[in-house]
Amino acid sequence: MIEVKNLVRTFKSGDRTIKPVNDVSFELEQGTLASIVGKSGSGKSTLLSLLGALDKPTSGDVVVNGVSLASMPDGKLTEYRRRDIGFVFQQFNLIPNLSAVDNVMLPMEFAGVRKAARLARAKDLLEQVQLDPEKHVRRINRLSGGEQQRVAIARALANEPKLILADEPTGNLDEQTGDHIIELLSSLSRDHNTTILVVTHDRALANKTDRRFRLQQGRLSEEPARTRVGAAAPA
Amino acid sequence: MSVLARSVGNAFRNKVRTGAVVAVLAVAIGLALSMLVANQAVAAKVTELNASVGTVLTVNPAGGQGFEGGGEPLTAEQAATAAAVPNVTGVVGTKALRLRNATEAAAQSAAGTQGAGTQAAGPGGGQGGPGGQTTTTLTTSLTAAVDAGTLGNRNQAGEGTTGSTGTTQPARTMSLPITATGTGAEVDSTGRALEITEGSGLGDYTAESTNALLGTTLAEKNGLKVGSTFTINDQTYTVAGLFDAGTSFGNNALYVTLPSAQTLAELPGELSTMIVTVNSMENVDAAKTALQDALGTGKADVTQGQRNLETAVSSLGSVKNISFIAFVAALGTAGLIILLIMVMLVRERRREIGVLKAIGAPNRTIGLQFVLEALVLVALGSVVGAAVASFASGGIASALISSNSTTAAATTTGRGMPGGAAGFPGGGAGLPSGGPFGGASQLLTTVTASASPGVIAAGIAAVFGVAIIGALVPALLTARIRPIEVLRGE
């Protein structure tokens, strides 16, 4: 369970103080597929960085399964990112000179997983995201955008994180590939009880999540829930 | 993929840049290794010179050196007195002899008798020499390995004139004598160990023996090998070994044990020179004074061979210092190159570092990755640099030594070290081949700068040490990169 308590993040820009995240509070149950929508510059990515311990809040706290991120030293935050968080970036952020399978193996290497085990799991994950097996050993810069995003998702799943934070996961993809990615995230949430928080400005995508939040000028508000993608129709 | 494999992969990410970096590193590392090799070679030479020459004093009879001058011969009692002088660690007595080829000596003697009359004492036919030390002319079955040439004929003729009663002798071709030295230890007249190239030494140098050591050219001239025999005054000697003195003059010589030489000269207990070794260079001056006082200024002349080579040793010391400074500078340059390259790579890969941190890479893993990448580049540079050093170190050392020894060599070449068995006039038709001590220039140029595996390994270890330091700085910089700063661009 994730609890976000009165989260504030401010930046100085000349004489002005900007508050991309302004007193944000919410809770997410384990296994929830949620989305945050908002215009560009509304603070979506900043909020995601705070939840993923990439950045530190000016005030407030994020509590993950009862553990406060605010009180964690840097080493513990790194461990938190390694074990509990999976990031899917809009620009994929894969290591260009490594193969698809090597990229997926990286987080497992950092977690101390033995080589044979991480190779087997990396191949399995790449199959789950439906990457052609012959492309597993292909260098990232020889894969298409959709294929790279699948590798990025596989990498995010490598250490079986409790929370996946996806920043515009379909932003660089065509509609068909984007739909597939959403299906994939939804099934992960449903089948693996993984909490997934997607940041997007794509309302269609947001409509496919369990819970929808809107971020406007740093303030978060929740919108009414919709039927989940892939969920059984009500009787 | 392990950190090492990733580092190797990263090192070759941009092959053109990698090639350029390796080339620059190879130059710096090659220069560093060359300087280290030169430094080690010069250091070894300085140690050798200090050990063998710098601490040696030569004692000659007062007023006499070799076969020139006059005075009273040195005695075994004086050798014992010298050995008791403070800081003296060893005294080796020598007895100098001159040998003439028996056939030529007979012919020249006959010619001398006809031309100058019978000489009751002193040199007949230019053989005896004016000095009072070894008036006995010994004959041998050996033939001198050095042709008399212009200088030899002039020198021999000069001696003959000195010994005559003023009658001008007709010009004739002279044969050169052969230097024979009775020595109390396996050292030459300068106190340096004899370089025996074949066979063995003479064993106990303080006992009579019919074994002899021959200079390589003398042996070659007479077709002798180890085990061959020759005669001195009808006494048969066996060649126990061959030595290489490094000069034509020095190799036209032979060594027998001191008692053997004294017996041949029929002068038991008499010494031509004493080679006195002092315990350290610092004590040479004090020992020289004490030795002179102990032996008496009217009975012995004490000379300091070190003086002749002081400038040379000093010059070599300068080369050693210069090469060490250059080694450190080249090493520092290699470290700086690594530092700058790695700083550039860290800046270039800030985003990648941020991503690695975002997915949970610890700082030490990222730092280690960059250090290993630097070491891969250094390893490649070291391989090429070692190859460069193995070819260039000799030339660089020679260039350093020749540029620093020109003055020193000019002041020492041809001065020679007075005394002892080396005092015979030399031969040859042109310039003298240097004095009996060969001149410091020869010692300087005999510095052998070979790139030994040990020195190369030590140099490469130093390069790696510097490279690690150079790579640690940028590696530590990676720890300061916050993932959000580089990912915020999204």
Radius of gyration of chain B: 32 Å
Task: Give the SSE string of chain B.
Answer: HHEEEEHEHEHEEEHEEHEHEEHEHHHHHH
Say what oligomer this is. heterodimer
Give the % helix of chain B. Answer: 40-55%
Mean pLDDT of chain A equals 86
The residue-averaged pLDDT of chain B reads 76
The tally of domains of chain B stands at 2
Contiguous uncertain segments of 5+ residues of chain A: none
Largest sheet of chain A: 6 strands, mixed
Q: Brief overview, please?
A:
Chain A is an alpha/beta fold and 235 residues long. Chain A has helices spanning 44-51, 74-84, 100-110, 115-128, 145-157, 175-192, 203-206; strands at residues 2-13, 16-28, 33-37, 59-64, 67-68, 85-88, 163-167, 195-200, 211-216, 219-223.
What does this structure look like?
Chain A has a domain at 2-94 and 161-223: 3-Layer(aba) Sandwich (Rossmann fold), CATH 3.40.50. Helices cover 34% and strands 27% of the residues of chain A. Chain A is built from 7 helices and 10 strands. Chain A has helices at residues 44-51, 74-84, 100-110, 115-128, 145-157, 175-192, 203-206; strands at 2-13, 16-28, 33-37, 59-64, 67-68, 85-88, 163-167, 195-200, 211-216, 219-223. Chain A starts with a strand and ends in a 12-residue tail after the last strand. Chain B is of the alpha+beta class. Chain B has 2 domains: 3-50 and 313-487, no CATH class; 56-279, no CATH class. In chain B, strands 1, 5, 6, 7, 8, 9, 10, 11, 12, 14 and 15 form an 11-stranded mixed β-sheet that branches. A two-stranded antiparallel sheet of chain B has the order 2-3. In chain B, a hairpin with a 2-residue loop joins strand 10 (229-232) and strand 11 (235-243). Chain B starts with a helix and ends with a helix. At the A-B interface, helix 2 and helix 3 of A face helix 1, helix 11 and helix 15 of B.
